[in-house]
Structure formats: C-alpha cells, structure tokens
From TrEMBL:
It comes from the Bacteria. Keywords: Membrane, Transmembrane, Transmembrane helix. This is DUF4175 domain-containing protein. The chain crosses the membrane at residues 9-34, 40-58.
Length: 63
C-alpha cells in the first residue's frame, strides 16, 4: 500500500469527525466572546453538530 492510500484512508475515517469537532470548538469559543454576531456564530457552531448527531441516531434506529 502506498503512502497516498494511507493518507486517503486517514481523511476518509477522521475527516468528518474532525470538522465537526472544529465547528463545535468554534461555537463554544464564540459563545464566550460576546453578544450579537458572536451569539449567532455560537448557535450555528453548536446547532450543526447537534443536527448531524440526531441525523445519525435516527438513521441507526430505522435499520
């Protein structure tokens, strides 16, 4: 297996969870910074990972 294949497998496995973790961290940090636009960024930063989690749980219950 070449190095390119290993690199591709890594991002295929950890790419989406990494982006979700980064988005959550940005949302939590924005909640600490202030009001107004920071609140909107915090809501978005926390709502999208929550939506993905609920979507994943609902898909598992159907199977």
């Amino acid at each position: 297996m070449t190095r390119h294949k290993k690199h591709s497998a890594f991002w295929k496995t950890f790419g989406t969870p990494g982006w979700i973790a980064l988005l959550t961290a940005v949302g939590l940090f924005a909640a600490l910074l202030g009001d107004g636009a920071w609140d909107v960024l915090a809501w978005v930063g926390m709502a999208i990972p929550t939506w993905y989690s609920c979507k994943g749980l609902m898909a598992r219950k159907r199977v």
